[in-house]
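User: I'm new to structure prediction. If I give you an amino acid sequence, what do you actually give back? Let's try with this one:
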Amino acid sequence: MPSLYVHIPFCRHRCGYCDFNTYSGLDSIIPRYVEALAKEIREVGTQGDAPSLHTLFFGGGTPSLLTAGQAGVLMQAIRHSFSIEADAEITLEANPGGLTEGYLSELLVLGLNRISLGVQSIHPAELAVLEREHGIEQVVSSVRAARAAGFANLSLDLIYGIPGQTLDTWEESLTRVLALEPDHLSLYALTLEHGTPLRREVRSGRVPAPDDDLAAEMYEQAGERLARNGFAQYEISNWARRMAGPDAWRFASRHNLQYWRNLPYFGVGAGAHGYVNGRRYSNVLAPATYIRRMDSGASRGWPLSRAAARSEILSNDEAMRQSMWLGLRLTEEGVPVGGFQHRFGVSPDERFGREIDELLAHRLIERQAKPDRLRLTEHGRLLANQVFVRFV
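Assistant: Good question. You get back a string of structure tokens that encode the predicted 3D arrangement of the chain. For your 392 residues, that looks like this:
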């Protein structure tokens, strides 16, 4: 069963570390963008005979810049053009600040049931390095507003390895965030992406370079702290509040699991990516170009829309490689050997025996017998890129 990603590329301010397809100063075209997005949703969904969705994700950018009315237009288009499972996970990414109980209550009525809040840090100096515009007060008020509105699934993001960050300030961020009682946490190591202002600041010497060894200590520190507080790690950068009984992984991100399991998903919006029927595709990047394409572009064959810019059919070997490195991101589940063989007709060992043997010998991955699967060791989580590169 596929998922749907909806890209909202607008921000009040573009942060210095961000290399996503986002734009500031384009608020005036948001209404036209929403109209174009609704067109693409209808085009893809109706051509595909109303595929059934079990997760939706509004990402960006800052999707919370949409009014409740604009979000309603998009949800109406989705419900008209796709089938949405009754228990579907429907997530909206948001920045702290400006979120009110009234606004969030309207989103809940529309069917959204999960909020992902970009906290990143609680310390003003660290937030300044990242060029974030909020403070801890806005984080607290946004969390309170989400809970008061009725959201029972709340995810918070943090960044570690920020220049000037210490083990003590990182511990303080973890403490303050855990006190907010989230259901899910995503912890990301800062990376200096090409073309970003922060990378230029570091290369010029105006900002100190991130310390990789210190970042590794922060990662281990976080894992230990979260485990003590009832969170279980299910992916390299993601922890969910562990529940009792058969619903133990209730708060794991079902949408992101779709990506890591290399399962199909539609992508709509400027710069969105999708993977359906073995076809990987992406849309044009610029919002204005996207709007023009959806207004007057040439029709494309399903699952592509008029906004598609690139498309390719993955070979069986490419799909196998992708399934290996994505699956190994899942720290508990890993790559199920039986599932891999059922999907591709060969076992991971038959196709990647040499790579697997080397990784086992270096204790970067381990084999679990029941159920039969391959997954990262704790040591391998710290050196995950050295594992993934074997399958790219």
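You can read the tokens as a compact description of the fold. Here is one thing that stands out. Residues 30-47 form the longest helix (18 residues).
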